[in-house]
Amino acid sequence: MHLFRSILVAVLAVTPVTVSALKPFRKELQKVPPLQSKQKSHDVKYFHEPGGDLELGHYDIRYFKQKVPYEQHRPALQHLIRSYLTTFRSLGVETWLAHGTLLGWWWNGRIMPWDYDLDVQVSAATLHYLGKNLNRTIHEYEYFDEKGAKKTKEYLLDINPHHSDVGRGDGQNVIDARWIDISNGMFIDITGLAERQPSGSPGVWSCKNFHRYRTTELYPMRQTEFEGVPATIPYAFDRILTDEYGTKSLVTTEWEGHRWEPELKEWVKTPKDQKTVQKTSPFVDSKNH
């Protein structure tokens, strides 16, 4: 088997306000063989989810055991994004926040507590590199919890073999890759952007799910932080967000049973007896799995 070596960084403790020091370490990464997915022979979809409701559509079926409770959900997603961003940075691989994850960054640099998964993007050239060199590698991630104890988690970088397809096809493989928590099946969706019509529409980048961006909206990328670790976002992030979600997404202060508290700069869960009904969502994720 091929072995890969990378330098990873232990990330911040998962608490609302407390963080711990960063600590680098080394880990050998071993390629794992393809896993058998629960799919029929005629099914060409690569990534599969348990399904049944919105939340169950956001777990990888190969590693799913049970739903992660609300109290543990955001910390698990924090580990996901921190491990992903620090690993890709240590490998020198460019990636940036996208969709609802980028919107969470805009509000307070954190994951919105009702999110079930996370979204990032890479270039098609980066996808090709990942598929050739790092596909199906397990990455170990160390961190310190709120009590100062060292913990370890493992994540799988899994590249969809359909990632090089130029078109959308039947829509079952619009997600090009995933960063998967193998302890519970939670994941980050990774989609690739490419100039799909360089002669007819030069400088227009798109994914397989019809999100389109101009080169000047993406570059030069901006360096920032997300969930306490270094992150990258597109240059025209405000235009990208309003094009995708509308201007209301930047000002609406109640959604999905949560209320924005400006003094705390946090989304706080609303007690059941205080919930108000909002008929339309400014936060609808327009991507289709």
From TrEMBL:
Q: Which domain of life is it from?
A: Eukaryota
Instruction: Name one cellular component (GO) term.
Output: membrane
* GO biological processes: glycoprotein metabolic process
Organism the protein comes from: Neoarthrinium moseri
Q: How does it sit in the membrane?
A: Single-pass membrane protein
Q: Which residues form the LicD/FKTN/FKRP nucleotidyltransferase domain?
A: 91-196, 208-246
Keyword annotations for this protein, in alphabetical order, are: Membrane, Signal, Transmembrane, Transmembrane helix
- Taken from the record, one Pfam family name reads LicD
Which subcellular locations apply to this protein?
Answer: Membrane
Major location (coarse): membrane
Give the InterPro entries listed for this entry: FKTN/MNN4/W02B3.4-1, LicD/FKTN/FKRP_NTP_transf
- Leader peptide range in chain numbering: 1-21
Q: What is this protein called?
A: LicD/FKTN/FKRP nucleotidyltransferase domain-containing protein
